[in-house]
Amino acid sequence: MERNHCIAEAESRLLHTYNRFPVVFERGDGVYLYDTEGKAYLDFAAGIAVCALGYGNRAYQAALKRQTELLMHTSNLYYNRPTVDAAQKVLAASEMDRIFFTNSGTEAIEGAVKAAKKYACTRDDHAGHEIIAMNHSFHGRSIGALSVTGNDHYREPFEPLMPGVHFADFNDLESVCSLVTDRTCAVIMETVQGEGGIYPADPEFLKGVRALCDEKDILLILDEIQCGMGRTGEMFAWQNYGVKPDIMACAKALGCGVPVGAFLMTGRAAASSLAPGDHGTTYGGNPFAGAAVSAVFDEFERLHVPEHVKAVAPYLEAQLDALVAEFDCLTQRRGMGLMQGVVCTIPVGQVCAEALKNGLIVITAGADVIRFVPPLVITEADVDKMIIILKKTLNTLVKSVINR
Length: 404
Ligand SMILES: *Cc1c(COP(=O)(O)O)cnc(C)c1O
Fold this sequence. Notes:
This protein has 14 helices and 17 strands.
């Protein structure tokens, strides 16, 4: 299908829930995407922090090909090997004891919330528990996940949402403490806030919330959907803090493009939580998804992905810091590992659109942040190329602002 025809068909047939950039991508190779005209784009977004291995990873492709020929799906009424392999690998990397595979991040959050409610229901012998979530958080678009998402713009058309959710300020321990009641069953937060504008948790805050949860038998749910899977230099972001959650949610890079998520629990939390009949999914953890997760973990190990992130991230940070120093329109950098944000006073949508024209993919976070969540296999040379294109982009935009 010809490019303009494809775009026109998409605009007339797909539900209009996105304002898309006018690009039709056709294939990927390494850290580059190629559109239907053959133009190359350096990818510093990775399909929103999904394609951690970049594009065209041979071992990953071969594992998927093999599994499509063997078996795609069986339902959860039976056992299958790939998903057990995947479970072993995710649990070993996450120091957790039990896992439930889902098809998306949103569903992982749904499961995590249900698990926390069930834990408290078992303990107290009654339902009606409350959850503390964070302002400026993002946990997904289903009614349950939206109910713990601290963004009025996303929530308001769909209210009333799930009751019993109270919002605290991220990195403000007092505000969390003030919302605790004897009905609180969980505190949920992203270890590094993503969509909200790339805000890492302060170590003191996370440790304080952990201590509070321990004291009151409240479960700590960490959403590692975006910041997990090696992105911060540890396999999961909380491992940088030494603060272990009771429940954690994972997705995005978990399947590197195959739609799969998971929520994981410690043995203690799982022992008095979801039981047979309490939760289920038709697709979740099917053999194909299991093979993908398993292959992703094998490649992470072979390529030493978290170690690579630790090695290359300081270079990205230094180059972004230099850029912030050079351009008046850039005011701050923040982030962890290969999850970085730069605050920008030029409309960030314009920056992304102009960068795209120049062959660089970056995305926004919050209202005024340029987000960098590249494949985890980027090199310093890729960072240099990104900086050159971003400089050119900003120079064009700054000039057009002055000339207006
Ligand atoms: C993307 C994201 C989600 C939602 O995941 P989906 O796969 O889009 O449902 C939830 N939490 C965080 C932190 C995310 O970045």
